[in-house]
């Protein structure tokens, strides 16, 4: 091979542009992978809300909260004044749990998803506040206890109607 004066390769390090592709190609590849993963998860059901599973879990939680509230209300009549405040707090907790499930259902399905009217909860909270105030001031609580038992029975009947069970009279 004959080398002429200008055609010789330079010896040593020679700078070459090793990036022959566009700078957008890696970004487009990452976006494509993320889009493919999203579509895979979306259509395979991962990360989505399974309507049947949601409804069965909601119904089980509703049943549990209402049954616990009813059981606590039944215990009130057999208790002395020392633990009545604790039972009232438990009943308030269970009623609040039912109210939160109601609000969650409304947020998922809109106003048509409302399980209970807000007046049901307002009535229960009013009765609980009255009962607690009478208990704190040392007044008789029989009328408040009866009103609370009726309100919890109404909540239980409404829940049974929602869940498709027969109501207890």
Give short descriptive properties of this protein.
69% helix; 169 residues; 0% strand; mainly alpha; 5 helices
List the helices and strands and how they pair.
Layout: H1 25-44, H2 51-76, H3 81-109, H4 118-137, H5 142-163
Helix pairs in contact: 2-3, 2-5, 3-4, 4-5
Number of strands: 0
Proportion of β residues?
under 5%
* Mean model confidence by pLDDT: 82
Distance between the termini: 109 Å
Largest sheet: none
Principal-axes geometry comes out as elongated
Low-confidence stretches: none
Q: Which structural class do the helices and strands define?
A: mainly alpha
Q: What does the radius of gyration come to?
A: 33 Å
Helix content: 55-70%
How many H/I helices? 5
Please write the string of helix (H) and strand (E) elements: HHHHH
Describe this structure in words.
The structure is a single chain. The protein is mainly α and about 170 residues long. It has helices at about 25-45, 50-75, 80-110, 120-135, 140-165. Helix 2 runs antiparallel to helix 3 (about 80-110), helix 2 (about 50-75) packs antiparallel against helix 5 and helix 3 (about 80-110) packs antiparallel against helix 4. The longest helix has 29 residues, at about 80-110. The N and C termini lie far apart (about 110 Å). The mean pLDDT is about 80.
């Amino acid at each position: 091979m004959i080398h002429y004066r200008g055609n010789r390769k330079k010896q040593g390090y020679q700078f070459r542009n090793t990036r022959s592709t566009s700078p957008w190609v890696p970004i487009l590849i990452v976006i494509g992978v993320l889009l493919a993963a999203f579509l895979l998860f979306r259509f395979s059901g991962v990360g989505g809300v399974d309507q049947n599973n949601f409804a069965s879990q909601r119904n089980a939680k509703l049943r549990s909260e209402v049954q616990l509230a009813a059981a606590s209300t039944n215990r009130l009549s057999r208790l002395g004044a020392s633990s009545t405040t604790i039972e009232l707090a438990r009943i308030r907790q269970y009623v609040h749990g039912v109210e939160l499930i109601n609000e969650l259902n409304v947020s998922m399905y809109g106003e048509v998803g409302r399980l209970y009217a807000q007046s049901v909860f307002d009535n229960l909270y009013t009765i609980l506040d009255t009962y607690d105030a009478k208990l704190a001031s040392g007044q008789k609580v029989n009328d408040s206890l009866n009103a609370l038992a009726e309100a919890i029975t109404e909540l239980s009947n409404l829940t049974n109607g929602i869940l498709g069970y027969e109501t207890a009279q």
